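Marked as duplicate of an earlier ticket. Keeping the data here for the record.
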Amino acid sequence: MEFGINFFPTVGPEEKPADVYFDEALRLVELAEELGYDHVKTVEHYFFKYGGYSPDPVTFLAAAAARTSRIKLVTGAVIPAFTHPLKLAGKLAMLDNISKGRLQVGFGRAFLPDEFDAFELAMDESRPRFLDGLRACQKLWAEENVVWDSEFYKFGPVTLLPRPYQRPHPRILVAAAITPSSCEQAGHDGHGLLLVPSISKREKVQEMLTLYRKAYAEAGHAPGGDEVHLSYGCYLSEDSAEAMAKGREYSQRTNAVMVDAVAAWGTRRSEGYAGYEAIVDKIKKSDFDKSVAENKTLVGTPEEVTERLRTIREWYGDVTISLQMISGNPPYEETARTARLFAEQVIPNFR
């Protein structure tokens, strides 16, 4: 198993100025490299406290690259619908060179109606725009004199500069939420997979992983390339009661900002997002203790979290774990403590 830190901000100017947030986050990046974590990752979101401090993962990861020499840099994920593929592919190729090939590119569809409205895009077009943008980037990285003529973009012949450091291109990962067909498509195309197990029942996650791995194998891709990243909220303390109390507090803060971000789903419907109309009610009814009991969040002592991870490995196999340690806006000192405890007392059990 591999382990990394996923930077998912859930904070606004009233709680923490942006410059302070980035200073603390980059200090944590340096600590992650020192402690032997395998990757750092960040999201793309806009406008809301739910992720809004990270409108451009490439900018953050370029700063992370400058402060590190070993750790992988993962977009989790960039949204091709919101950026022209010529721009997106070029920025990511720059980052791949700056980091000397440490980049993995996660692509996602996005799911917040307010973001689509601001970019003046129809949510019903999100899936074809996602696939079009991803495939255009892939072609721009791998080939020269590229000509592209699709429903959404028309350009070429062009040869992207700089060429990616990794050839033919960086590892591609695809973010999926609750749609099994997205997992199946990712497997068929030979990409890695990004999932958030906390939003689905264990059986649903297992179903999606089975579809993904089956499609990957049947398409004839190289064995071992079916990489799966699972994201979990994480808070550790050597005192179990403290871990539960603080973990609950930060989980509730995260849920509060998420409810605000998804509020538009209370009145919106989209063919491409079946079932999302229930998301507001589902978040409001979230039960922290149940989430801990069902291994949907990694909160507790190092020993307790180790046991949770052993169960997760039994359920899902040797996956890559992305830890959301900053969500809920804990103080930097507590986050650094969690990072140290996890690295020193949990990770050695899975190496």
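See parent ticket for discussion. The first strand starts at residue 2 and ends at 7.
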